[in-house]
From TrEMBL:
GO terms for cellular component: plasma membrane. The chain crosses the membrane at residues 55-76, 96-117, 161-181. GO terms for molecular function: 2 iron, 2 sulfur cluster binding; metal ion binding; monooxygenase activity; oxidoreductase activity, acting on paired donors, with incorporation or reduction of molecular oxygen. Keywords: 2Fe-2S, Cell membrane, Disulfide bond, Electron transport, Iron, Iron-sulfur, Membrane, Metal-binding, Oxidoreductase, Respiratory chain, Transmembrane, Transmembrane helix, Transport. This is Cytochrome bc1 complex Rieske iron-sulfur subunit. Iron-sulfur subunit of the cytochrome bc1 complex, an essential component of the respiratory electron transport chain required for ATP synthesis. The bc1 complex catalyzes the oxidation of menaquinol and the reduction of cytochrome c in the respiratory chain. The bc1 complex operates through a Q-cycle mechanism that couples electron transfer to generation of the proton gradient that drives ATP synthesis. Belongs to the Rieske iron-sulfur protein family. Residues 24-37 have a biased composition (Basic and acidic residues).
Length: 350
């Protein structure tokens, strides 16, 4: 394409000098510079600046309220509760509440910081030439001065409402993580010290789901039982049976060596916790001739004719015994709870 084919208005302006030389009037690569700075309404109207300050403070305050909602949801909502949320369907109410409140808390801090920077902090463009990687002392001094100027221009010291609500939001958001430490273990209370057994509860056969009578347990047999009212379809069945599981053995009264064991039995029927005191495995093996109960996990062995004391294996203490008798209908019933916590030792047992 020749110069004749280019429209005349698209050609650079030219001057013809002597001897046929051509001079270009304007530099096509000249630096156009920065456009003229336009002030924001907050820079010239104090009422607009106050409105922006209130918006930022509102976002930080909303973040604090969302953090409180996160903690309240974690403490009060049942982990098994579900709600219907369109279009997600049925989801965990706890997970939905935790995700929503924590998301709002973090979003409001970010949105407040962005709105603060865009409306109240200085927006003057500053051009600076590139410099060497290692800063000169003068540059370091300038950086510190720029930081001080930026802090002053951010109005952080002047806008006390923003500053205080920001501190509150940033201080409360980490509490969302602190409360999650609760899941590291049970709270200091007596959940591990007690079971569902209490005076008057019938002993129900785990296999037939029928109340047990003394005649249902022959000498030398091993029978597993649970407390009356505990059903497998209950949502907390697994949690309760892990402490309530019971094994019943009938021993000739003259073969029972421990005096208290004999007193807490009924016609030679003794009731002990089925939960091994080593790591909580269910005990399921019984030797008729020796009256020994064996845990299949690590071979801890207990003598059920002598207070269920440990005679072999890593278990640390004897199996807890449940005092039993008969009710007005002739069924075996508990006369109280276990005499000590069931299962392995735990940190607050003392």
């Amino acid at each position: 394409m020749s110069s004749q084919d280019i429209p005349e208005e698209n050609l650079p302006a030219q001057d013809t000098e002597a001897h046929g030389s051509v001079a270009v009037k304007e530099d096509p690569f000249a630096d156009p510079g920065l456009p003229e700075h336009e002030h924001r309404i907050q820079d010239i109207d104090d009422r607009a600046a106050k409105r922006s300050e209130r918006v930022v403070a509102f976002l930080f305050t909303l973040s604090m309220l969302a953090t409180i909602g996160f903690i309240a949801s974690y403490v009060t909502l049942d982990v098994d509760k579900s709600v219907y949320i369109f279009p997600l369907g049925h989801i965990s109410a706890l997970n939905f509440a935790l995700g929503t409140t924590l998301g709002v808390a973090l979003f409001c801090i970010g949105a407040g910081a962005v709105h603060w920077a865009r409306t109240l902090m200085s927006d003057v463009e500053v051009a600076q030439e590139r410099h060497a990687i290692e800063a000169e002392p003068e540059v370091k001094a300038k950086v510190l001065q720029d930081f001080a100027d930026g802090a002053r221009e951010s109005q952080f010291g002047r806008r006390k409402l923003i500053r205080n609500t920001l501190f509150g939001a940033l201080a409360m958001v980490p509490l969302s993580g602190v409360v999650l430490l609760r899941d590291l273990g049970p709270l200091p209370e007596k959940k591990l010290r007690t079971t569902s057994w209490k005076k008057g509860l019938k002993l129900v056969n785990m296999n037939t789901n029928e109340p047990l009578r003394p005649s249902d347990i022959p000498v030398g047999s091993l029978t597993f039982a649970k407390p009356e009212g505990l059903e497998e379809h209950d949502h907390d069945f697994q949690t309760n049976i892990a402490k309530d599981a019971l094994m019943l053995v009938r021993i000739q009264p003259e073969n029972i060596k421990d005096k208290r064991e004999l007193e807490w039995s009924h016609e030679g029927i003794v009731a002990y916790s089925k939960i091994c005191t080593h790591v909580g495995c269910p005990i399921s093996l019984y030797e008729q001739q020796t009256h020994h109960a064996l845990c299949p996990c690590h071979q801890s062995t207990f003598d059920l004719s002598d207070g269920a004391r440990v005679i072999f294996g890593p278990a640390g203490h004897a199996l807890p015994q449940l005092r039993i008798g008969i009710d007005d209908e002739g069924h075996l019933a508990a006369l109280g709870d276990f005499d000590e916590p069931v299962g392995p030792a735990f940190w607050e047992r003392g």
